[in-house]
Automatic annotation (TrEMBL):
Name of the featured protein: Predicted metal-binding membrane protein
Presence of the UniProt keyword Transmembrane in the record: yes
Domain of life: Bacteria
Organism: Actinopolyspora alba
InterPro entries on file: PpoB2-like
Amino acid sequence: MTSGAGSRGSSGPGWFSGTELLLAVVLLVFTALAWLLTHSLAAPGMRLGILTGTRPMASSGFEWTRFGFFLLTWLIMMTAMMLPGITPFTIGMSRLLRVRRAGTGSVTILVLGYLLAWLLTGLAAYTCLRVFDALAMAGSATAARSGAAVLVLAGLFQFTPLKQWCLVHCRSPMALLMRHGQRAVRSRRGALLVGCGHGAYCIGCCWALMVVLLAAGMMSLVWMAGVTAVITVEKVLPYGRQASYAIGALLIGVGLVLLVLPGLVGTVA
């Protein structure tokens, strides 16, 4: 009787309990809502970038209202793009927390920690976007070649040891779970730090692709979906390292073409 009750109360390695399936559904629902909210918040100018032929209106100085709106939209975008990728990690953590009888709120804190890590990159992303705005005002050829340089640099980053090191951790979140799971079990502060740690690996892996997104069109659902697909291929599908190299080669190739023929940017846009 005891073993039967235990088997009903726990999940094997290849099975998900009802609670874990519900958690996965909740995360995916939040993802869908974030995509819809991104679409509703996106102004026409925010769907374009220096790789898509935009000429934004100049703005002087640092505007807190604009920065606050950017941070809000950045957080929503990161929720839309990154939440599906951490679903297996979150389910694994919820299983560990349940076995150790830790507070159920720790799972929420874990996800918030992950998103907090991405939110903290918002200042760098905003600065990058303002630089791109200035380049766009300098002329279409300058903007196009700057966007091409972004593609080349992002492609080169795909071949660096830092990229591959972070990618290994992103592809194996259970390694992080086994190494730091006890910290999350002990306290909600620990869960927050574990979530931030996993977010830091993802930032190290994906930051160059995010710069490409800013150059292509920050809130364009098409470009968001494209970058999300690239990130998913790297993190989930087999042969992640080879996929990363192929993506890098493609970025470098397109970037070199645009450096030679910057007029293609205006044609495509």
